[in-house]
From TrEMBL:
<keyword id="KW-0067">ATP-binding</keyword>
<protein>
    <submittedName>
        <fullName>Nitrate/sulfonate/bicarbonate ABC transporter ATP-binding protein</fullName>
    </submittedName>
</protein>
<dbReference type="GO" id="GO:0005524">
    <property type="term" value="F:ATP binding"/>
</dbReference>
<feature type="domain" description="ABC transporter">
    <location>
        <begin position="4"/>
        <end position="229"/>
    </location>
</feature>
<dbReference type="GO" id="GO:0016887">
    <property type="term" value="F:ATP hydrolysis activity"/>
</dbReference>
<comment type="similarity">
    <text>Belongs to the ABC transporter superfamily.</text>
</comment>
<keyword id="KW-0813">Transport</keyword>
<keyword id="KW-0547">Nucleotide-binding</keyword>
Amino acid sequence: RPVVEVNAVDKVYGNGTVALKGADLTVKGGEFVSLLGPSGCGKSTLLRIMAGLGGISRGSVRWWEQDYGVVGQKGRKLAFVFQNATLMPWARVRKNVRLPLDLERAKTGSEAEAAVDQALAMVGLNKFADAFPRELSGGMQMRASIARALVTEPNLLLMDEPFGALDEMTRNKLNDDVLRLWQARNWTVVFVTHSVYEAVYLSNRVVVMAARPGRIVEEVSIDAPYPRG
Ligand code: ADP
Ligand code: ADP
């Protein structure tokens, strides 16, 4: 079943930049799709459109075969991880991770705390729940951002070059962690990267985009290139 469908979408920014031209992409439940391409080819734009952030100039986007109104309902949640760990510096890790639950107002205080503990455990940060972001390494801050995305148990996880700013060792370790979590939970993930290695290592399917004028040029299925995890 499709989780998100982008049909013949054009995106032209206010200054006239054509960021997407006739983009077609369907992501099915349980897939791990990477968007790969050079800087400026429209990866972030496509990902943001899949998150319902920002309008489109032409075409259509569907979530769970419905319009955007369905997003947020039970079993149809999405979460977005930005390139930089966008934590609130004045709040402890626990409070940062809890923010989406407080916004959702769907859980009682103790349920929310339990969900926060679980999300922190998934990314291996439970010992740092009471630390402030500045006390964490870059990799750990990124983990906290991922925990904040996971805390609502999203059915669709959209990640915009989440590890682009990290050193290679930390990045490889986090790649393994994401892969392990994905295998365990059968998530649907769309992951933006400009690293061929990362795309091939992580995904079922690599969607390759060309620089001009924001087109998808190829889709490559990756059949378990080597034992995963
Ligand atoms: P990528 O993520 O592949 O680097 P983007 O989706 O960020 O590509 O950008 C695609 C194109 O759209 C680029 O030419 C970029 O400069 C332009 N662009 C992105 N955001 C905006 C914006 N808010 N206003 C105008 N142009 C933008
Ligand atoms: P990451 O891969 O998350 O960036 P690092 O490689 O920076 O992690 O850190 C390795 C280990 O060092 C962490 O798992 C953590 O246990 C410990 N560590 C890192 N930063 C701190 C800190 N500020 N205080 C205490 N322990 C830390």
